[in-house]
Design a protein that fits this description.
Largest sheet of chain B: 6 strands, mixed
Order of helices and strands of chain A: HHHHHHHHHH
Number of domains of chain A: 2
CATH class of one domain in chain B: Alpha Beta
Structural class of chain B: alpha/beta
CATH superfamily of the largest domain in chain A: MetI-like
Number of strands of chain B: 10
CATH architecture of one domain in chain B: 3-Layer(aba) Sandwich
Order of helices and strands of chain B: EEEHEEEHHHEHEHEEH
Largest sheet of chain A: none
Number of helices of chain A: 10
Strand order of the largest sheet of chain B: 6-7-8-3-9-10
CATH topology of one domain in chain B: Rossmann fold
Distance between the termini of chain A: 8 Å
Structural class of chain A: mainly alpha
Number of strands of chain A: 0
Largest interface: A-B, 20 and 26 residues
CATH class of the largest domain in chain A: Mainly Alpha
Helix content of chain A: over 70%
Oligomer: heterodimer
Chain lengths: 259, 251
């Protein structure tokens, strides 16, 4: 384990950076508030920042928000689990076997070019507007970045390191375990991070199309009811959760890819 | 088998190796006795690294014969050599100890007490006991190259191949590592084949220097280094250096 120690100076520098990053967004919020109050935007199009907070608060107080959030989070979670599990299995297969790669990779390389939302009508037809269609759509979104990055990462393992395995007579299994997979881990994480990002994107699409619960539904409802505060509130929550999951993946990556 | 002798640790006979249309080595013959230290020098691109790659069993496609301990390098012979590359080629995600363990022969359980003792002994030998649990990124270039050497020794090879192992090191570290290698070699029955472009290094270390020249590379001459060991880096080197550089076609 390599450990790094941070001095006080580093810490305050980190904090300073954080603070600096908040300045521009803070100004934007203030500008937004001023623009609404002075009548640049009518409130039925753009509500005050504070009324977005109030809306979120009252939704939270009634318990409604918790339901929406948990439904959306579950969809993203299961979509990621399904899509990424499949991606890891198939990416590993095509990454380590030339035959599997020749058989399957051209197919996936072509499929990735289909805009994933194009699957929506078909999924709706097949699975109705229930959970299965939504989870599968999210799974499609999460699948490709993970598959592509893992497969490429496994192919790209340094020839020099493979030679070390050859000279020291490692078995195929040992070579995969000690040399090939660890070398491909950073690419896998690149894939997972963008896969999680896409999963959030696709949950919005799925919930806008047909859902009676979830943050995407909240947005759709906001449009129908002419409640921009609800729409913006949902956007803020997507931003929050998107950032949280990205940070979580980064944190895991830092622990796993620790060399 | 040929004139190179049954007892040679390394026997290469009429070796020709081409990569596509590019011939890297032509009709190279070389015989190294057990326990001998042989340097191979030549200009860059003369195929000297190719020669080591053939001996390490990394090249399957060549003409002529190449054997280690009498066994073809394409089959069992290649399994009796350890190799230190120009770069240490360590696995950055493994500790120093685990990197050395990569060299353990097939069938040795790296978690067994025997393996642990062996690795401890090797780390002690290369002076890296304190760094056993460090990652390669925490090591200096010289230390990393010693880990690479320890990994090769863990394999318990008949022949150790070294491909310009010191060329990336600064002069002072280089001298230290050279002497360290000599100590290691003296205390073991290892056969060493060292490839280098550094003429003085070749002469200082070896019993014999094989000069490769031309393109494709072929053996120009062999220079026996008769200087008594232990050696210093004194006047005697100059004479050998001149003979080798002349053979290389350098004025």
């Amino acid at each position: 384990m390599s450990t790094r120690t941070y001095g006080l100076a580093d810490l305050s520098l980190d904090q300073a950076r954080w603070t600096l990053g908040l300045i521009v967004p803070a100004f934007l919020v203030v500008g937004w508030h001023v623009a609404v109050v002075t009548g640049v935007f009518p409130p039925y199009q753009l509500p005050k920042p504070l009324s977005v907070v109030e809306t979120l608060y009252s939704l939270a107080a009634s318990g409604e928000l918790a339901t929406h959030v948990s439904v959306t989070v579950q969809r993203v979670f299961f979509g990621c689990v399904v899509g990424m599990t499949l991606a890891v299995v198939l990416g590993t297969l095509t990454g380590i076997s030339r035959t599997a790669s020749a058989l399957l990779d051209p197919l996936f390389q072509s499929l990735k070019n289909i805009p994933s939302l194009a699957w929506v009508p078909l999924f709706l037809l097949w699975f109705g507007i229930g959970e299965v269609a939504k989870v599968l759509l999210i799974a499609v979104g999460a699948f490709f970045p993970v598959y592509l990055n893992l497969s490429t990462g496994l192919h790209a393992v340094d020839e020099a390191r493979r030679e070390v395995a050859e000279v020291y007579d490692l078995t195929r299994f040992e070579t995969l375990k000690s040399v090939v997979f660890p070398a491909a881990l950073p690419s896998l994480f690149v894939g997972v991070r963008s896969g999680v990002g896409l999963a959030w994107m696709f949950v919005v699409a799925a919930e806008l199309i047909g859902a009676s619960q979830g943050l995407g539904f909240l947005m759709k409802n906001g449009r129908v009811l002419s409640r921009p505060d609800m729409i913006i509130g949902a956007i803020v929550l997507f931003a929050l959760f998107g950032n949280l999951t990205d940070l979580a993946v980064k944190e895991v990556e830092k622990r796993v890819v620790d060399w | 088998m040929s004139s190179t002798g049954e007892n040679a640790a390394v026997a290469v006979d009429d070796l020709t190796k081409a990569y596509g249309d590019t011939v890297a080595l032509r009709d190279v013959s070389l015989s190294v006795s057990p326990g001998e230290f042989v340097s191979v020098v030549g200009h860059s691109g003369c195929g000297k690294s190719t020669l080591l790659r053939v001996l390490a069993g990394l090249e399957d496609d060549f003409r002529g014969t190449a054997t280690v301990d009498g066994a073809d390098v394409r089959t069992e012979g290649g399994e009796r050599v350890g190799m230190v590359f120009q770069e240490p080629r360590l696995l950055p995600w493994k500790s120093v100890r685990e990197n050395v363990a990569v060299g353990l022969p097939r069938g040795v359980d790296p978690d067994s007490d025997d393996a642990h003792e062996r690795i401890d002994a090797l780390l002690d030998r290369v002076g890296l006991t304190e760094f056993a649990d460090a990652r390669p990124s925490e090591l200096s270039g010289g230390m990393a190259q010693r880990v690479s050497l320890a990994r090769g020794l863990a394999y318990d090879p008949t022949v150790m191949l070294l491909d310009e192992p010191f060329s990336a090191l600064d002069a002072l570290t280089k001298y230290e590592q050279q002497d360290f290698l000599l100590d290691l070699w003296r205390d073991s029955d290892l056969t060493v084949v060292l490839v280098t472009h550094d003429v003085e290094e070749a002469a200082y270390l070896a019993d014999r220097v094989t000069v490769l020249g031309g393109q494709p590379g072929t053996v120009e001459t062999t220079v026996d280094i008769t200087e008594e060991r232990p050696r210093d880096r004194g006047e005697w080197l100059v004479d050998y250096r001149d003979r080798i550089t002349t053979a290389l076609g350098v004025e």
